[in-house]
Amino acid sequence: MKKLLLLAFTAIFAFTFTACQEETVYKVGATPVPHKEILEYVQPILEEQGYTFEIVEFTDYVLPNSALASGDIIANFFQHVPYLESQIAEYGYDFVNVGGVHVEPIGLYTKEYASLDELPTEIEIIISNSPTDRPRLLGVLEENGLITINDGVTSEDIIDATVTNLPTLFTSDRTITFTEVAAELLYTNYDNEEGDAVLINGNFALDNGLNPLEDAIALEGSASLYVNIVVTTSENENNPFILALVAALQSDEVQQWIEDNYGGAVVPAA
User: Fold this and answer.
1) Which homologous superfamily does the CATH classification assign to the domain defined by 2-104+225-268?
2) What is the pLDDT of residues 210-245, one digit of tens each?
């Protein structure tokens, strides 16, 4: 009799535990394109493994980390390593990078000029107001022959400079000035033809219908430092759902889907 009761209790416990597992709905924060789209592709893959998650959409770079810190979401997928490190330094977040997924090349966009050669000798370039983006932005200009960063200038020098002092850190055969705006407004500035050209982050370009490969007059090359990562709290670093999510995002299937779906505008990193 005791054996039968023990078996019954075990069966009830197993059923209850399984039901609780199935009822758990995780929340993952993401910006719209391509992060949310990639997560939507991954959702059925994780459902087959017994994990259900909801995508919480954010349209800026501040709220996804504050939501993670407050426990409203278990992870977010929108940022690169330098931005994460700056956020940890500024806010003391107990966050960890649990895996890279892709790179979104930054492009230089303009409605007025068809190529770099057509740019005037005096140029106003509109850029993101995130200081951690600056080394990457100047890197795009240097890769494409618009500037040469001075010897001895470090990423920290570029981050710490004022926007008006940035031109003193490089040489160029053009006179370049910069105007900073919030990253989510870069496309609006481009669309309104403000400035001569705009350096637009890949996700905001894609989100507004631009194809970096076709529409940018200059495009970022290899940038593994700026791979977009999945971030969670140190407490959840080894959470089975987090491990399954990262494994799916880095799988051959998903990485191939990224390559096929975005045609090189988003570059697989894993």
Assistant:
1) Periplasmic binding protein-like II (3.40.190.10)
2) 999 999 999 998 556 789 999 999 999 999 999 999
